[in-house]
Amino acid sequence: MGLELRTNLKLTQQLVLTPQLQQAIKLLQLSRLELIETINQELMENPFLEEGFDDPNAGTEDLISEQRKTENNEEAYSKEIAQNADWEDYLGDFASTTRQHNMKEVDLEEGLSAEARYISKTSLSGHLMWQLHLSRFTPKEVEIGELIIGNLDNKGYLQSSTEDMAEVLKTDPNQVEQVLARIQLFDPIGVGARTPQECLLIQLKVLNYDRDPILVSLIQDHLDDLESKRYKPLLRKFKIEMEDLKEYLDIIQSLDPLPGANYDDSEPMFVSPDAYVYQYDDDFIIILNDEGLPKLQLSSLYDESMSLNSETEKEYFKTKISSATWLIRSVYQRQKTLYKVLESLIKKQRDFFISGVSGLRPLILKDVADDINMHESTVSRITTNKYVATPHGTFELKFFFNSALSLDDGSEVGSESVKALIKKLIADENPKEPLSDEKIGEYLKDVLKVNIARRTVAKYRTALKIPSSSKRKELL
């Protein structure tokens, strides 16, 4: 059979995401800080996009009136946004403005200086280097000490052997051991240890407790037994009473097995909420956080470009104008979608905004998507990396979506509410008789009428990072 080339016509349909649509989808899932960075980048690259400034003569009533006027005509509305996108116009409407005329002005964030918000934090390596260079070491010992400090993890433990470090520096391993022994006496004491036993024994030595052989043996050979609360074999082996063992445990518990933890190099994450929700009488007010968000509008170059004759220049200007217009509309659409989702969350999770986590109801993406007539994927994107400040704290929007547990009366309760109840039960328990997972499950069934299995209680307790009842039990 011979091969031949043929030309055929075929009609097909396929979904194509235009660059503008891709941009709008991308903006939905950006966090607030990422959105500001993206806008600032576009401001630098697009000559037809510029940052507008507030008009001090423009009142709130004028802004609301202009917004309502443009909503009546979609074409005029789009043109208005493209040519003069005054953010006070539409963000004011998203900020529940009409419900705030009789309300005291809300201070969104206290005006703290940057110095009050951020302070430099001493790292473990920096703290040890400072002590190293202020101690009496030879230049060679300083070099060894710097290598040792460089091989410590964030908990203060040495992650390399003395032989390997000696080979790197072409020196004697005994010299490395001598320098290491001196560094282990630096502040915090025990840093540079290779095992928890070594770390605790170093601290015992500094406190002059190492003269007690029973205490040394408990740390050196029986830490696992102490952790598992296997006390009876230890009492028989050392021929001591329970009161004596308790004194030894008090000493051991006063030691620090993680000497470098207080100098963790990781920085705390500061969350800037995308919106604020305040309670005003029996209603809740939503205020979108537009602090630092540039107010976009088309540049005056837009009118000048109309008189160009060069086709190349016209094409370039047309592309940039289209990009600027789409960015303005996409940012507007993002804020509008965020506001609608928050309104729906307040409506469906009203008990949470009134009473806190215990009032959180079961909720899935489809519930909100159906309420605001949008697709679930849109709700998923707009709730990603977004935070809202509520009367009960700052939460990620995805926090409000949780699975359901059945009640005896046929109704449902949210899993986050059950987690909060479990956490409260454990916090109020008798430390000497902690509640087991089975007892917690029985309590939830008998008192709160929540149908929950023991393994589900264990799963929720583990998610809350709460140890089991055996590990919570205090020594009598």
UniProtKB/TrEMBL annotation:
Pfam families named among the record's database cross-references: Sigma54_AID, Sigma54_CBD, Sigma54_DBD
Gene Ontology molecular function terms on file: DNA binding; DNA-binding transcription activator activity; nucleotidyltransferase activity; sigma factor activity
Domain of life from the UniProt record: Bacteria
PROSITE patterns: SIGMA54_1, SIGMA54_2, SIGMA54_3
Keywords: DNA-binding, DNA-directed RNA polymerase, Nucleotidyltransferase, Sigma factor, Transcription, Transcription regulation, Transferase
Keyword Cytoplasm on entry: no
Domain RNA polymerase sigma factor 54 DNA-binding: 315-473
Residue ranges occupied by any RNA polymerase sigma factor 54 core-binding domain in the UniProt entry: 115-302
Biological processes, Gene Ontology terms: DNA-templated transcription initiation
GO cellular component annotations of the record: DNA-directed RNA polymerase complex
UniProt keyword annotation of Membrane present: no
Family (UniProt): Belongs to the sigma-54 factor family.
The protein's name in its UniProt record: RNA polymerase, sigma 54 subunit, RpoN/SigL
